[in-house]
Write a structure and sequence with these properties.
Helix content is about 80%, strand content about 0%. It is elongated, with a radius of gyration of 23 Å. Helix 5 runs antiparallel to helix 6 and helix 7 packs antiparallel against helix 8.
C-alpha cells in the first residue's frame, strides 16, 4: 500500500508546483480578466463575486488586479450587509495598496465611513469624514465629505457643530459661483433652525 501512497503524494506536490509556476507566468493577464468578471458580477450576485475576489486576492497577491480585488471584496461584503468585515477589508486595502496616488485609496477611506455609518458609529464616521481632505487633499472628493460629516452630526443631535460645517461650506462655496452647493448647505441650516424651534 505504501508503494502507491508515496508516488501519489509526490505527484500531488508536483502538480501544485506546476500550477504555481503557470500562475506566475500568466498571472497579470489572468488576474485582470478575473477581476473584470468579478466586477461585472458584483451587483448581480455579491456572494459569488465575493468568492471570486477572495480567490483572486489569494492567487495573485502581488499583481495590481490582485491588490485591487481587496477593494472590490470590501464592496461585495458591504452589499451583503456585512459592514464590520467590509470595514476591515477597506482599511486593509487603504493601508497596503501599492499605487499611492490612486483614487481608490481615498475611496476606500470613504467606504470605511459608509461602513461606520451603517454600524451606527456616527462619532467615528464624523472623524473619518473630516480626516479625508487632510489625508488626501488631491483626491477631488471635495464638499461631499463635509456634507457627510454634518449629516452624521445632525443624527447625533449636535446641531451647533453641524451648523458650523454648513456655514463653512457656504463660505468656501459662495452662492454666485456654486449656487447648488450653497443652497443645499443653506437649506440644511434652515432645517436645524426649525428643529431647534420645535424642541
Amino acid at each position: 500500500m505504501r508503494r502507491f501512497i508515496i508516488p501519489l503524494i509526490a505527484f500531488a506536490l508536483l502538480a501544485c508546483l506546476n500550477k504555481a509556476t503557470l500562475r506566475r507566468r500568466s498571472s497579470p493577464t489572468e488576474a485582470a480578466i478575473a477581476l473584470k468578471v468579478a466586477q461585472e458580477l458584483l451587483y448581480e450576485d455579491a456572494a459569488a463575486a465575493e468568492d471570486s475576489l477572495r480567490s483572486l486576492a489569494v492567487g495573485y497577491p502581488h499583481t495590481q488586479p490582485g491588490e485591487k480585488s481587496r477593494f472590490y471584496l470590501g464592496q461585495a461584503l458591504f452589499i451583503q450587509g456585512r459592514y464590520r468585515k467590509a470595514l476591515r477589508q477597506f482599511a486593509r486595502f487603504e493601508r497596503s495598496y501599492s499605487v499611492k496616488q490612486s483614487i481608490l485609496r481615498p475611496l476606500a477611506l470613504l467606504a470605511q465611513v459608509n461602513c461606520l455609518e451603517e454600524m451606527g458609529r456616527l462619532d467615528d464616521a464624523v472623524k473619518c469624514y473630516l480626516e479625508l481632505p487632510e489625508r488626501y487633499p488631491e483626491s477631488g472628493i471635495g464638499v461631499d465629505v463635509y456634507f457627510g460629516a454634518a449629516r452624521c452630526l445632525m443624527l447625533l443631535e449636535e446641531y451647533d457643530r453641524a451648523t458650523l460645517i454648513y456655514r463653512m461650506i457656504m463660505e468656501e462655496y459662495p452662492e454666485r459661483e456654486y449656487p447648488a452647493i450653497y443652497h443645499k448647505a443653506a437649506g440644511e441650516v434652515g432645517k436645524i433652525d426649525a428643529l431647534r424651534n420645535i424642541f
